[in-house]
Amino acid sequence: MKDEATYRRLFRTALLIRLVEERIIALYPSDKIQSPVHLSIGQEAVAAGVCDGLRPDDLVFATYRSHGFYIAKGGRLDVMFAELYGRTGGISGGKAGSMHLAAPEVGLMGSSAVVASTIPHAVGAALSADEGACPVPVRGQRPCRA
Description:
5 helices; 39% helix; 10% strand
């Protein structure tokens, strides 16, 4: 590991992801969240670590447990929660919900409930990418490089 600043940055990102997931848990029984949710409690370090090593223009293709990757790539929480609430100000206009987050503006190219289904998309992105770009498919619960 590089230094203490790196540890602190990774910890802050992982902690933010955990706190957001715990907030979703607290809100879900109220029926404010308009879609099923699939949390990544216990997997926060994966998104934090993978995304910390990426450039802003590197792309992530996630599974349905995508909140952490969206947050770690720098996504706005107010926009993510608007999506979960089914509001038009959400990432996808309130239509995608929790499982299908897609935010190309932060490099989250999409997420799918079908495990490993984003790998072909990431391979296509890798084949068409500029040299040095790093599309990252997430399969199951662990990432893999395209």
